[in-house]
Amino acid sequence: MSFISNAKKPANLVLFAMLISVGLLALFTDLLQSKTAQASVLSLAIVTLLLGNRKSFEAEEKDLYQYAIDQANSFTITDTHGKIIFANDIFCNLSGYSLEELKGQDHRILNSGYHSKSFIHDMWATILAGKTWHGEFCNKKKNGELYWVDSTIIPYRDESGKIIKFISVRKEITEKKLLEKQFQAMVENLPAGAILLTKNDIFFNRAITDLIGYTREEISSVDDWFRLLYRERAAEIKSLYEQKKKEGFKNKTVLSIFTKSGQKKYVESFFLLFIVTGK
User: How far apart are CA 27 and CA 25, in angstroms?
Assistant: First the structure.
């Protein structure tokens, strides 16, 4: 039987999984090895029955996957205009709005006024181009309280490839952002340079700005930091940083950096930074 001869085909993997799930794999194997007409008819009947139910089998797997996401994260589905179609309980509890209040609204109902128009424009340009967007949002609850989320927005396409929905998965990071703000307030005016590196973002105080010549707008991410200051050694220094982080940042390290003007400077780094990785 040719339909089972190539186990690398996705359809065959699904078939094997279904046979195992219903306890028919051993029987099916015996039937394939038999050369009788009755065995061939019976094995074909099993395949027809199982593949006929393949869609429901795959749908059940997707439902379980969505259930797992739904239980751990804030989750919404919108149309291509950003109108909310669905929001899970975590999203509703976090925002303070009921699903009935959210349906038909767009996410401007949560607008805190924190983000610039260019930030929102770049987000929309990314997802309308069919790409996944990832970033952090400051939102406002129904009661006026602000909260932060780490957000991933994924375009959802139909069978023809047309984008028909956007799926947003969020994780609350308010505590992490508050810790970052406290750190910034503590170190902003210190005479020594201080840097905060999180998973994706970076903050450095005024002393660092004076040292390197770059503004915070010019270095807005961890990748920017390593790329601009260490240039061809960026990957090497980033690897050293990860190693120091695992070791607990116990030792001093002398590193060479490049300023915005191209000047090479040597700095003594203690790596004794207040590291916030979030939950």
Answer: 6
Contact 50, 42 (CB under 8 A): no
Q: Give DSSP secondary structure letters for 98-135.
A: -HHHHTT--GGGGB-S-S-HHHHHHHHHHHHTT--EEE
Whose CA is closest to 15, among 41, 39, 50? Answer: 50
Is-above-0.85 flag for pTM? no
SS3 content of the chain, % helix, strand, coil (to 5): 50, 20, 30
Can you say how many angstroms the Cα of residue 254 is from the centroid of all Cα atoms in its chain?
A: 34
Strands, DSSP E only, in 123-274? 133-140, 146-157, 163-172, 195-197, 202-204, 253-258, 264-269
Q: Residue 112 has which token pair? A: 């805190």
Spatial distance between the Cα atoms of 41 and 197, rounded to a whole number of angstroms? 65
Instruction: Report residue 110's pLDDT band, with 50, 70 and 90 as the boundaries.
Output: very high
Question: pLDDT digit string (tens) for 68-93?
Answer: 555 668 889 999 999 999 999 999 99
Closest alpha carbon to 27 in 37, 19, 18, 38: 19
- Residues in the chain, total: 279
Average pLDDT over residues 215-231: 86
Angle between helices 10-21 and 25-33 (to 10 degrees): 120
